[in-house]
Write a structure and sequence with these properties.
By secondary structure, the protein is α+β, with helices and mostly antiparallel strands. Helix content is 50%, strand content 18%. The chain has one domain (3-201). Keywords: Membrane, Transmembrane, Transmembrane helix.
Length: 203
């Protein structure tokens, strides 16, 4: 079973932008005025390329047999046996066999999120200020304790390390890490480039 992790804020913001672009594209086509409309479409195309590659495409996927890292222009497939460790600073850095480091685009850990995580340490696991309000269940308390002092990136870094260690305990042999160019990103980029050229050519 695959588990997909990404920046929820960036993902939602990206789709809001896509909806905005779709409405404006329809309006520009219906009210086409020549060069000015083409310039507007080209600007929307360039901005959409940036939004797609930085907000919609990036994801970290924990698959059964490998770690899949989708960055803006490349996708990396790292078998768990080839992963040695994961460390977290602002981003998650996955250390691979052969002294290679793979930087994950998402999720990241901002200073604000880390400060918020520190404030959770020692917080009382109870909802509300009044004793009549329901308290957390044992499962919710365990989850709160597991996340105490940790950001989402910290937690995911631990999951990656645990899966790598599990693969090592099973005696799995390190397989080659595969990388592929992100065809979808280049398609979006090509469309934006075509719009820019059209805007320059149309009188």
């Amino acid at each position: 079973m695959k588990q997909i992790y990404r920046s929820r804020f960036a993902f939602v913001l990206g789709w809001v932008w896509v909806a905005f672009v779709a409405l404006n594209t329809v309006d520009l086509i219906l009210r086409f005025t020549g060069k000015s409309s083409m310039v507007a479409l080209a600007v929307l195309g360039v901005l959409t390329t940036i939004v797609y590659t930085t907000a919609l495409r990036p994801a970290t996927v924990l698959a059964e047999d490998e770690l899949v890292v989708r960055n803006p222009l490349r996708t990396t497939y790292a078998p768990w046996a080839s992963v040695t460790d994961a460390t977290v600073s602002h981003s998650i850095n996955v250390h691979l066999a052969g002294d290679r480091t793979l930087r994950l685009w998402t999720p990241t850990s901002s200073a604000r999120e880390r400060a918020k995580a520190r404030r959770r340490v020692g917080a009382r696991p109870q909802r509300g200020r009044f004793p009549t309000e329901p308290t957390l269940s044992k499962g919710e308390q365990a989850a709160a304790e597991a996340f105490a002092g940790k950001t989402h990136a910290d937690w995911l870094g631990e999951q990656i390390t645990e899966r790598a260690e599990a693969a090592d305990r099973r005696g799995e042999q390190a397989a080659p890490v595969r990388e592929k160019w992100a065809i979808d990103s280049f398609v979006v980029l090509a469309v934006a480039l075509a719009l820019v050229i059209a805007a320059l050519v149309v009188p």
